[in-house]
Write a structure and sequence with these properties.
With 1325 residues, this protein is an alpha+beta fold. 22% of the residues lie in helices and 26% in strands. The strands form 14 sheets. The chain has a 5-stranded mixed sheet. A 5-stranded mixed sheet has the order 10-11-12-13-17, with no helix packed on it. It has a 5-stranded mixed sheet with strand order 51-52-53-54-55. Helix 20 runs parallel beside helix 22 and helix 23 runs antiparallel to helix 24. It is globular and about 130 Å long. The two termini are 72 Å apart.
């Protein structure tokens, strides 16, 4: 796939460009000497600077910094005020650049057969020199600008400090002494190279005598002998080699070798890595030529003119797996990126891409042509190429998903040497690799502390790899791009050339061809040696339109191209998916000639436990996309193929984020069964690649921004997705998915958990097994086998708890430089560090020293959760997988790399995911105890709760959860007692029982802490009791009940639902004495409701009545006594009525102003005599059927004749009558009552579920409030106007009881009334 990755328009020509290796940064300089740093991933400008002139913002910032630091203004002119002149070169410099520059140089030198051991040995990380700073270095004619992008502080080095000579180019020297720090070499206009120290900012060295003119380019590289060299190209056309090793203190260095390279001057120089050979130098000059030089003999290997009549201005070494024969990229001032095929042989120049077809059409004016002025390939990601043009910066992406042509072979058991097959040109080769060090750190050694204090078992250094390349005599028919894959058994190797198209199947044992034919795509079954291919006829070649031809010939060529494209499309649509199987004798047989009945052309095949087929959807293609596709398809075979199925045939405009999800991911992917060839499930979005577990338990579908992981057994179940963008490939290793991306190596730990479908499937399988056994018994013994004798049956059903799926991502390697902070223990103890910081506190030192002996036996302990990220190899990678505890990778240059998995944090997880939880616990002794909780959570997610309990450093809280998960309730109880500090609470004879807790006159801190601890973990206590009851462990439940009952006796300690749950559990365990004590204690602390509930569970009515009465809940006690016929009913009713009467007489009055009170008093009925004041009756509420309490005491007084029919009889009590239709709370037969006043007998009664007492009105006659219309509350007074108008009094509840309200009785306007709402509460509400 060729697509536009990023584009930044510019009105000026971009003449200088450079990419940062690890950050998505790009620095450019335009024709007006304006320098910009651009984040191409987020499309943001980081920094802009006018380097050619004087940047006013930077000048002001420098002055402000000096003022802030207290520096006085110097007499001289500040360096920021000096004009820089023309920008000659821009670059970044930091620890990442320093590391990867030396890494690439050493890797290129190590390819030579004559490379010395110090080059081929594992590369060690450099000591940090810039300490986290990121420099932007701008080389101008008059000065060099060093700008720190972290602090935004800069330093200008004028040419006066460098012998007053103009600066034309620069290069950073890899090897430098600690005293001088980082060194940068500047090429001067006088032919002298001057070296500047970035620590002292002084000139430390000169290279003289090499050039007669100015120096135009500089580059460092490493020879096969291990010597660091500096090469310079000048305007005199000479290529001069210098020694870059600075062991000697010579101030003047002379050249080692001088060569005549180009006429008119050398423009640029580049280093090219060659597989299996010494590195080569590539130079371009003003004579329009490109020359290739050997770095051992320094002889010229080849000289060509890539583009006639045009001089090359940029050159880059390129190594992309999609174009295995294109090694060099170059640019001239046109709209193409040019590639050179087989530079040392045929040296054919091909256009790699047409840039004008990538950019949006509105950017380029109709009469304006695109011109490229500079180009650079990404040093670590070869699929990215940045170009500077006359309209802006273009970053092109060339098929990031393509992988090297290599396939790993399965390793025989017991063999420590691993193998892989790869193709280079037309040769089939075998790569054997293994760890060269005998004491493999990842195989279980205890490890030790090195002299520097680092843990050797998890060194971030690259492991030593011993590899041997062997040639296989079997020839390969083609040298174009190919894809290698191995069958599930490892017996067969498949090679597909999608651009031809052609495929071959090789038998690994003798490398004979067992099958071949025409196919673009091939996919293997992961269970058997069968494969699917997409058969396709050879499409006609699209002719190349040469430049400078006549219009008639161009039209003819365009017509021929259209016919060829139509023929290719028809051939692609006619292709069908065919399935073949390889038998044991090596013969190939066709199983199915055409899979699927869909008519769309097939564009992808994905192997695995199911066959995945991707179809082309009908989507409208824009004219720009069609132009790009036709341009790429017109390339020759050695470049990118003309077949529609090649990876470069599809086009993306680079702005895919702006498209809708439906358009970005069409539903065009169908899974088929290998057995029946029928579709499985519906259509899915097409993944970039698929990975299936060998045990057919898990699968991963990769998309552009994430990876979807699913479980396959007992049925397909989506587990989740992980945000790993742009993943290129992955390999399963049990429950571990090792993923490679263009910048990182990730490990995803996966577990499906336990779902309801798993339990149901397990039950169904057991039933089927029983039925099958029964059927076999019937066949063998007849119907007598069905006769069973019933006996005592014991249920041994295991409790299977549900567990959610778990996905955890750990980054193993990346391009980022390891920070300078030491990740492991530093021994021996240092009092001061190098930069003069204060020593670490003594307590911290003692803590770290004590952590060394955690494992016992002198085993060193890693103090980090995960290891620091290792260095990812450069370029696209094939993930081989885990072999003997090491993750193996193979890069584009067919070199094997090993990533260590020996850090205890990774090792324990890998072992647990592999299924060896016991070994994981053993390895945990090498991990700091502060990380054991995290490891235990991981093991719990993997289903190893019991094994995780053996980790020595887990916290008590996690230990309790693990013990509950693994049904180790005794250990859970001990953890709970420790966490709550309640070991001595509830024990007899300890002085810490219930009575002692209630009488906390002397506040004992341990008792208070124990109660607080029990309250804090009350839920855990209840869960433990339930778990113990479920498993018949009564002793554990009783121990927990003792503590909980003790805490429940403290007022406000436990919530109401917790107290009720405690009472139920006490009764369930027969703890009647303790339950009775709990009731009394609850009564004493005023928790009447909970006390009554506990007494009800106990079955003691007297105690329940006492609970209601002693806590002031008289309404509940009356109802309870009436329901159960208690002899204390009369006394309870009297006490209740007294309380109600007292509350009615002392109700608060409503606050009103004076005018309102006066007007209200005028409306009140006036008393005619003092006798009328005693007519206000007392409030009396009785249960139904109970005689009046005042009938025998109070004499009736007849009312006056005028008010006989309407006044309330003072001696007539309020009756509570239960209507037959309403029944509530059957446990207590609670009463639904109506109140009846001395109103007329035919007044309607009101149903009451709960009754509230309403206080009487205030003297002013104002109502206290109102409620809704469903149950209006009458006022308790003698104002008929308020009653008639329906105004009501505000309800007040007696106790926390549910209430219902009494409907008022309508009276005459002259009569008085007494109504009220009665509090009736359910005893067990």
């Amino acid at each position: 796939m060729l697509r536009l990755r990023a584009f930044r328009p510019s009105s000026e020509k971009i003449v200088k460009i450079q990419l940062h290796p690890t950050h998505p940064w790009l620095v450019t300089a335009d024709a007006s000497d304006r320098v910009s740093v651009w984040n191409w991933e987020h499309r943001q400008i980081i920094y802009e600077l006018k380097a050619g002139g004087v940047d006013e913002r930077r000048l002001v910032g420098a002055k402000l910094e000096k003022l802030a630091e207290g520096e006085l203004d110097s007499k001289g002119k500040p360096t920021e005020a000096m004009r820089g002149g023309s920008v000659k070169q821009v670059n970044f410099y930091d620890d990442d650049i320093r590391f990867w520059q030396l890494w690439c140089n050493r890797s290129a030198a190590a390819e030579a057969p004559s490379a010395v051991n110090n080059v081929t040995s594992a590369f060690t990380s450099l000591a940090p020199s810039t300490k986290g700073r990121h420099f932007l270095v701008i080389c101008c004619e008059n000065k060099a600008i060093f700008l720190d992008l972290v602090t935004m502080r800069g330093r200008d080095v004028l040419k006066q400090e460098l012998d007053n000579k103009s600066l034309l180019c620069m290069e950073f020297l890899c090897r430098s002494t600690a005293r001088d720090g980082p060194l940068v070499a500047f090429g001067g206009s006088d032919g002298v190279i001057r070296v500047l120290s970035m620590i002292t900012w002084k000139l430390v060295r000169r290279y003289t005598g090499g050039h007669k003119g100015s120096i135009s380019c500089l580059m460092t590289f490493m020879a096969a002998s291990g010597e660091a060299l500096l090469v310079s190209g000048g305007s005199d056309g000479l290529l001069v080699h210098w020694s870059a090793d600075h062991g000697q203190d010579s101030r003047e260095l002379v050249p080692k070798l001088s060569l005549k390279a180009h006429d008119g001057g050398v423009v640029a120089v580049e280093l090219s890595r060659v597989i299996g050979g010494a590195p080569q130098l590539i130079t371009i000059g003003a004579d329009k030529a490109l020359a290739i030089w050997d770095t051992i003999s320094f002889k010229e290997l080849r000289r060509i003119k890539p583009v006639p009549k045009l001089a090359c201005h940029s050159v880059a070494s390129w190594c992309h797996p999609r174009a295995p024969n294109l090694d060099i990229l170059t640019c001239v001032k046109d709209s193409h990126i040019w590639a050179i095929e087989h530079p040392t042989y045929s040296a054919l120049t091909r256009p790699l891409c047409e840039l004008s077809s990538l950019i949006p059409p509105q950017v380029l004016a109709p009469n304006k042509k695109l011109r490229v002025y500079c180009m650079v390939a990404h040093p670590l990601q070869p699929h990215l190429v940045a170009t500077g043009t006359n309209i802006g910066v273009i970053i092109s992406e060339f098929d990031a998903m393509s992988l090297p042509a290599v396939a790993p072979l399965p390793t025989p058991s017991g063999n420590r040497e691993h193998s892989a097959v790869y193709v280079v040109e037309r040769e089939l080769n075998l790569l054997n690799f293994q760890l060269s060090n005998t004491a493999n750190l990842s195989l279980g050694s205890n490890g030790s502390l090195s002299e520097t204090g680092k843990y050797k078992g998890d060194s971030a250094e690259t492991l030593h790899v011993k590899q041997i390349k062997k040639h296989i005599s079997t020839p390969v028919p083609h040298d174009s791009y190919c894809v290698l894959s191995v069958s599930s058994s490892g017996k067969y190797l498949a090679i597909v050339w999608p651009d031809i198209p052609y495929f071959s199947i090789y038998k690994v044992s003798d490398w004979t061809i067992v099958d071949s034919g025409s196919a673009r795509l091939l996919a293997w079954d992961t269970c058997r040696d069968r494969f699917a291919i997409l058969e396709s006829a050879l499409a006609p070649r699209i002719p190349i339109i040469p430049k400078g031809v006549s219009s008639r010939k161009a039209k003819e060529a365009a017509a021929a191209a259209a016919q060829a494209a139509a023929a290719a499309a028809s051939a692609a649509s006619a292709a069908s998916v065919q399935v073949r199987i390889l038998l044991d004798d090596g013969t190939s047989n066709i199983l199915m000639r055409s899979v699927g009945s869909r008519s769309e052309p097939v564009i992808g095949l994905h192997g695995g436990a199911l066959l995945g087929v991707a179809y082309r959807t009908s989507r409208r293609i824009s004219p720009v996309a069609a132009t790009a596709i036709s341009t790429i398809q017109s390339m020759p075979l050695s470049g990118f193929g003309s077949s529609a199925g090649s990876s470069f045939s599809s086009f993306d405009d680079g702005f895919s984020s702006q498209r809708s999800p439906a358009e970005a991911a069409p539903q065009n992917f169908q899974l088929y069964s290998w057995e029946t060839f029928e579709p499985v499930g519906g259509l899915l979005p097409q993944p970039e690649w698929t990975a299936w577990d060998q045990t057919v338990e898990y699968c991963a579908f990769a998309y552009q921004q994430y990876i979807v992981i699913s479980s396959l057994r007992p049925q397909y179940r989506y587990l989740g997705d992980v945000a790993i963008p742009y993943a290129t490939g992955a390999v399963w290793h049990r429950r571990q998915l090792f993923v490679a991306t263009p910048t990182t190596i990730e490990c995803v730990f996966v577990d499906a958990g336990v779902a309801a479908i798993d339990i149901e499937t397990r039950r169904m399988k057991e039933e089927m097994r029983m039925k099958e056994a029964q059927a076999r018994a019937v066949v063998e013994h007849g119907e007598l086998a069905l006769i069973t004798v019933e006996g005592p049956q014991t249920s041994t059903q295991e409790r299977i708890k549900l567990r959610p799926p778990m996905l955890q991502v750990v980054r193993l390697a990346s391009f980022q430089h390891v920070p300078s902070v030491p990740p492991f223990l530093t021994l021996p103890k240092q009092t001061k560090v190098d930069d003069g910081d204060l020593a670490m506190p003594k307590e911290m030192e003692e803590k770290r020293v004590s952590e060394i002996a955690v494992g016992g036996g002198g085993v060193s302990v890693a103090v980090t959760r995960f290891p620091s990220e290792q260095k990812r190899p450069v370029g696209p990678l094939v993930v081989v997988g885990v072999r003997h505890g090491v993750l193996w990778l193979i890069d584009r240059y067919m070199c094997a790399h090993a990533l260590s998995l020996s850090h205890p944090g990774i090792r324990c997880r890998c072992l647990a995911a592999y299924g060896d939880a016991v070994s994981a616990v053993k390895w945990a002794s090498r991990l700091g105890r502060e990380h054991h909780d995290d490891l235990a959570q991981f093991m719990l997610g993997m289903g190893y709760a019991t094994e995780a309990l053996h980790l020595p450093g887990i916290s008590k809280r996690l230990e309790f959860d693990l013990a509950m998960q693994s049904n180790d309730l005794k250990r859970a109880l001990q953890c709970l007692l420790t966490m709550s500090n309640s070991r001595d609470v509830g024990q007899d004879g300890t002085g810490l029982g219930l009575n002692d807790i209630l009488n906390l006159t002397a506040k004992k801190e341990n008792i208070v802490d124990a109660v607080q601890g029990i309250v804090k973990f009350a839920k855990e206590f209840l869960d433990l009791i339930d778990a113990a009851d479920a498993t018949a462990q009564a002793d554990i439940a009783c121990e927990a009940l003792k503590r909980l009952a003790a805490a429940g006796s403290v007022k406000g300690a436990l919530q109401g639902y917790e107290l009720r749950g405690l009472a139920l559990r006490l009764a369930n365990h027969g703890e009647l004495t303790r339950l009775s004590g709990l009731v009394n204690n609850l009564i004493s602390v005023g928790l009447g409701r909970e006390a009554a509930f506990s007494a009800a569970v106990l079955g003691d009515n007297a105690l329940m009545e006492k609970a209601w009465q002693d806590t002031g809940m008289l309404a509940e006690s009356v109802l309870h006594a009436h329901a159960h016929g208690r002899p204390t009913l009369k006394n309870l009713v009297q006490a209740w009525n007294k309380m109600l009467q007292k509350g009615a007489e002392h109700s608060p009055s409503t606050k009103t102003d004076a005018a309102a009170a006066f007007l209200a008093s005028l409306e009140e009925p006036k008393l005619t005599s003092l006798a009328d004041a005693g007519k206000k009756p007392t409030l009396e509420i009785l249960p139904p059927g109970m005689p009046s309490l005042s009938a025998l005491v109070t004499s009736q007084k007849k009312p006056g004749p005028g008010t006989q029919s309407s006044q309330q009889q003072a001696s007539k009590p309020l009756q509570l009558e239960a209507p037959p239709a309403v029944i509530s709370e059957p446990a207590t037969a609670s009463i639904t009552a109506t109140t009846t006043a001395t109103a007329p007998e035919n007044a309607p009664s009101s149903s009451m579920a709960d009754v509230e007492i309403a206080p009487p009105q205030s003297e002013a006659g104002e109502p206290h409030g109102s409620v809704d219309d469903k149950a209006p509350i009458p006022s308790s007074g003698s104002n008929p106007d308020l009653v008639t108008s329906g105004e009501n009094a505000a309800p007040t509840s007696t106790g926390n009881t549910e209430s219902t309200e009494v409907t008022p009785q309508k009276l005459d306007s002259q009569g008085s009334h007494i109504t009220g709402t009665v509090p009736l509460s359910d005893a067990f509400a």
